[in-house]
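Assess this today:

___
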Amino acid sequence: MNVSGEATKSLWMRDTAFPSAPRLEQDQQCDVAVVGAGIAGVSIAYELTRAGQKVVLLDRGPLLGGMTSRTTAHLAPICDDGLSALVKIRGEAMARRFQESQQAAVDRIEEHVRDLGIDCDFRRLDGFLFPAAWMDEKEAGKKCDAEYEAAGKAGAAVEHGKGVPFKGHESAPVLRYPGQATFHPLKYLHSLLADFSKRGGKAFADSAVITVEEGERVRLRIEDGATITARNAVFATNSPINTVMAIHSKMAPYRTYAMAFELARGTFPDALYWDMDDPYYYVRLNPGLDNIDYLIAGGRDHKSGQTDDGEVRFNALEAWIRALVPELGDEAARWSGQVLDTIDYCGFIGRSPGSSRLFVATGDSGQGMTHGALAGLLIRDLIVGGSSGWESVYAPDRAPPAALTNYVTENLTALKNFAEYLLPGEIKSAEDLEVGEGGILREGLSKLAVCRDRNGRVHTHSATCTHLGCIVHWNSTEQCWDCPCHGSQFAPDGQVLNGPAIRPLKTHPQHKAASTEHPVKKADASNGSGPDEFSAT
């Protein structure tokens, strides 16, 4: 997501500036164009540059300004949905290769930190799986046994244990996973970008791709008219913009919430923690200054665009973590981000379906940091060497039969959403909206997305997502429109913040005046056709 639509700031954004980069204004030719400058895009661009490729990296917003800036930065190679679920749906052999590849991603980050001397608080530590609040000891023990058995099949190091330093869990059955890690993601990626530039790589910000054409070479047209011609192109844009349906129907967008609290240094053991709830909660520490650490807690996930109750979820998250860690101090930051869960818990990294020169990296499935670093290794090997030992694990064209139930369940969202065209609107007029609010207005046969931004200006657009026509929903927490079907996000003025959409929401003709000027109300405002050619024109 481009930060221009965000209302919250992560702990990383609070103390780290986004790297400056010019807008692309002149045509470029290169070996590889990488679209999307989060951890996946930067890792891919960096690995290819180290391999001798001439690389151009670009983003529709600021570099590192997307979902990578909104992570909690757990470097955990353990499958986010549980190793037992992974073994069940992909089998033991694939689960082993998944575990091996994710561990290689953490090792690669550590290698770059060491070789470049990056000061990003990288450290190895243990990870702990502990019982959900509602579980009794017997239920928690059964879960531990199942995950322990699956870890053996997948080749993950694990030990049975007893207790974690949360109130009420001092003697609970737990699993300990050694060799996990964590870091400050933006400080790490700042250094990779600096070395990328030293090696001849070019990076451009505020340069949205609006047309993708694949032939003997790939041609990307940028919003302001400049073009990039490359032998290959990689789309690492959280959700890929170069395909219409090939991948999007096999993953679903979820929003997750995080908060950081001050905590006296030495109060709490430094480790990664996640519980057995569904969706689960997760906790880690980050070093601060003056003997202060920050405890980061996350969770309260829900499908994107299906509810607008961020404040309620933050309150519940805070109540949960304060009950477990009574020593917590003041809140330091709160934020939310979007993850894309795939039907079989593994990302889609590799050749775009039906293409020979287009590649994608998407479907982080709650493990964006390790999937992003892995994408650098896997796509480098595919482009430079033609193959990768992990290629089949993450193949974007895969359709595992065991994942059929997940596929059907996740795609019911789109069917339910299209039924909304027949329903009444959420509001009767823009006058119903307070500052920072938005809602869907019915006007005849049309559905309109109407919001009053933080400055009191009213914006009115078509409520139809420009990707595949679903109805968008207002997200008051991040001050943007979310598409529940495939994860597109739009700013109050209709501009695209996050793909797969690449065109803004259409301004409704009868409401253009309202979209440009409107008095403040009740508040003080001072305070394509397929993978070979996809045209957004």
Q: What stands out?
A: The chain has two domains: 16-420, 423-524. Residues 464 and 471 are 5 Å apart (CA to CA). Confidence is low (pLDDT under 50) at residues 512-537. DSSP finds ten helices and 25 strands in the chain.
